[in-house]
Write a structure and sequence with these properties.
Blueprint lengths: L19 E5 L3 H10 L4 H10 L19 E2 L4 E2 H7 L21 H15 L1 H16 L4 H18 L9 E5 L5
Helix pairs in contact: 2-6, 3-4, 4-5, 5-6
Length: 179
């Protein structure tokens, strides 16, 4: 799920043309702490919060995608990025995409793969690849990718506004079109 209910919490800092807000989800603060305890940082929380409502892997297998487009873990990392940049999957083939499912039950590995990919690509290229696979790596400055990046940074900034946001049950959201 990207986005959330129209709850009237949109702010002027919301990226142009997007809807933003926040609402409370029981237990989300515990999940935020689990992510942080497994090595996640505030940007990681923002990516996970944008990708799924509860920062979990309770979504259709592979995010209803397959091969290089299949998504895994709380960050919905695509198989192309995983097999290209994460040591755990490096040099595996497109056809081995089901191996990415191991991230759905291993939060530390999920975070490690995310950080390896970000560090290998640099953040601008990482955003492109995360949003649109190899096409995004090759052209990371499309309007769609820049909108996704702005949404993640908006959520990160909301989390950073108050230290309690790193452990409370508040979910910040930006309505981004799923692809």
């Amino acid at each position: 799920m990207r986005g959330g209910p129209a709850d009237g919490n949109a702010t002027t800092a919301c990226p142009s043309g997007m809807r933003c807000g926040s609402y409370s989800i029981g237990g989300l603060g515990t999940r935020k702490q689990q992510v942080r305890n497994a090595g996640g940082n505030v940007l990681d929380l923002a990516v996970a919060m944008l990708e799924t409502e509860r920062m979990d892997t309770n979504y259709p297998y592979g995010d209803n995608k397959r091969d290089d487009a299949a998504n895994f873990g709380i960050f919905k990392q695509n198989w192309y990025m995983l097999r290209s940049k994460c040591d755990r999957f490096r040099n595996q083939s497109t056809g081995e995409w089901n191996n990415g499912a191991s991230l759905n039950s291993n939060l530390s590995a999920d975070i490690s793969c995310l950080h390896q990919s970000q560090n290998s690509n640099g953040m601008n290229t990482w955003f492109g690849g995360h949003r649109n696979g190899q096409t995004g790596i090759n052209n990371p400055n499309t309007g769609d990718i820049n909108g996704y990046k702005a949404a993640v940074y908006r959520i990160r900034d909301q989390l950073n506004r108050n230290s309690s946001n790193l452990s409370n049950d508040i979910r910040f959201w930006v309505d981004v079109r799923p692809i």
